[in-house]
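[audit] Reproducing an earlier prediction to check determinism. Same input, same settings, fresh worker. If the tokens differ from the archived copy the diff job will pick it up downstream; this log only records the rerun itself.
[audit] input (189 residues):
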Amino acid sequence: MMILNQSTETVNEQQVAEHNDNLELYLSQVGKIFDIPHIIHEPHGKQHIIDYYVSGKFGFLLVFSGEGFYHYGISYDGKHKRDNFNEQARIVEKYIHGSDSKNVLELAYGMGANTAFLARRNPRVMFDGIDLSLKPLKRFTKFSNVNFKRGDYHDLSALEDDTYDIAFVVDALCFSTDKLQVLREVKKK
């Protein structure tokens, strides 16, 4: 099983050491813009996360893409194109093809855009998506190879163990209250 994030680069020990050496500088720069103590002490719970996305749904649709994405796009040339929102899914698709995957799980599917994009392009692969709120856009539920389920990625016990070839998450693992628990759950699946 592979667990993917948005970065496919390998980080070596020297890069980690350089990053750690500059951590105070980075935190200082971030602290000039954001109230770090407020962010650290902000409530983190299931309902808080649901409220954040429900209250921001219109804004995400309007500002980000209008296509059902809850994340930014990736641009390799620095120019905004609507298709940039599909780049994260295209990266996952490379892993699907490279490992001849048959079952794929998306954690925190949002409105379902990434899963639907992949399902449309890979009709022989089964896709499950799990999210705190079962609110995929209707146009994304029409694919016969997609199952959207309500659930929390901290507890995947409703899903069968040893089922998925690939599990992925785009721009939502940051909301986890226990990232190690999420990784343990994904490993079982």
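[audit] rerun output stored. Observation attached for the diff report: The CA atoms of residues 31 and 37 lie 9 Å apart.
[audit] end
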